[in-house]
Design a protein that fits this description.
CATH topology of the largest domain: Rossmann fold
Structural class: alpha/beta
Number of domains: 3
Bound molecules: 5'-O-[(R)-(benzoyloxy)(hydroxy)phosphoryl]adenosine
Distance between the termini: 49 Å
CATH superfamily of the largest domain: ANL, N-terminal domain
Number of helices: 18
Low-confidence stretches: none
Oligomer: single chain
Largest sheet: 9 strands, mixed
Radius of gyration: 23 Å
Amino acid sequence: MTSTLANGMPLSWAQRYRDLGLWTDETHWEMFCAAVERHSRHSRHSRHSGPASPAALDRSRSVSWEELRRGAELASARLAREAGVRAGDNVIVQMPNCVAYLEVIAGIWRLGARPVFALPAHGSTELRHFAEHAPARVLVGPTRPGRRGQRTYDALREQMPELQILGVDHKASDPWEAEAAAGELPEVGAAQATDLAFLQLSGGTTGVPKLIPRTHADYLYSVRQSLTVCDLERSSVLLVTLPASHNFTMSSPGILGAVLVGARIVFAPDTSPFTILPLIEAHRVTHAAMVPPVLLSLLNAPEVAEHDISSLRTLWVGGAKLSATAARRVTPELGCALQQVFGMAEGLVNYTRLDDPEEIITTTQGRPMSPYDEVRIVDDEDQDVAPGQPGHLLTRGPYTIRGYHRVPEINARSFTADGFYRTGDIVEQLPSGHLRVVGRAKDHINRGGEKIAPEPVENVLLQHPAVHDASVVGVADEVLGEKTCAYVIPRPGRAEELQNTTALRAFCRERGLASFAVPDIIRVVEEFPLTGVGKVSKKDQR
Ligand code: OOB
């Protein structure tokens, strides 16, 4: 008899959150089906004739709510038939932003199985780690993953022949056509609301990303709670421009929030202003989530003036610190509201509220979205700091995990004995409860919202025959917030080989490093600065 859920939540706490009415008995598949029923009924009542208005669309497809559910059923049939996916299995999903992405994850939930949310930029190193650690024996990706993606999958086929890679032709007008012809649907897999729903990825401080176990009950609560502090509703149009599988895009209030309220979902293939401005205009987009660099590129794009973006109502900006300067430009220049979002895949999400004073909206990262979120700000000895003073942010609550997936040693460090998650963020709290992020204790690099752990990058650099030692740090960058800078010490007599940094970066890519983790800057040096105890002083390198 285990005494905790997959997310580390003690059963007594799970019962408490259920008694409070925060957690329900619904799984993601049940939520999805109930939502499709509601929205289809609504659109039957409100339209007299003609086709149902689209629920979700991308460059090649536009589908109604019912078609979306049908797509999910067929996706589940394909996964079951071709890869034998069953209840309790983990399935790595590495899809671009598209309608089929949503069908695939809903299809996985239909089987009672669990998506492992990889990002399109992940290379073979990360994917292999997910497959081994989750564990997962199936990966779903695009049929034509591009040159880099193809190399990644070729490498995986060689290194992990037991991993089955299933291609989905997301650009086809009907990716599930063949499946529809194949016949019967598999049964809906058994799953409970308190079961593991999926594995999300952490920003990570050491090594490859840790896997974050979220249950149906805790995650769906976080989506519903997000909706109570956001203005997303049935008539809204959500633009999905960050990678769909990121926690921010999924649930704050994100794709799942849109499914719950019946808002239209428009998938953008990338984040460039050239892509998103025409989409905002064409689909009368009202809401979008962005990391600060994407917001900046939008604010600074001369093309903004050429597009009618008057439909925009609210932009959610988070994932990394937004400067007050940029925050102040949003409403005057884009004509919409700004909500800052300070969240983490481990749980806690803070929002500025739409009716907060402007000063709060532009200079804080919001306050916890749930009255049941517990927040502590402590010094290095875990003692509470005086009000207003900066300290380490610890948190516990109805949708924050109490432990990572299968790493007891790391969990002992990342959580307090009474179950608070050590976020690694340094914050200060205003009397109003709003948090301001002032720094980070953990040493990962935040490259415009993409979190990069230095260690795996260093490990790859160290594989180069001319590299003696490598140390990777984040350096301030105006656009991205931070860039990665690698300091490398050459082996004796081989400095010459490292002069061509392009070749060294190509080497990183070949070794399967995620594209965003390949160092932006490479500096060849003779030695590293050291701290008092002889450790490399990353502080000085920065
Ligand atoms: C979101 O989630 P993750 O898991 O990729 O990264 C979490 C970390 C936080 O611990 C913090 O260091 C940083 O990203 N962060 C911010 C921030 N939002 C996240 N730092 C400063 N200001 C912000 N607004 O990034 C995430 C998950 C859900 C919603 C939004 C973002």
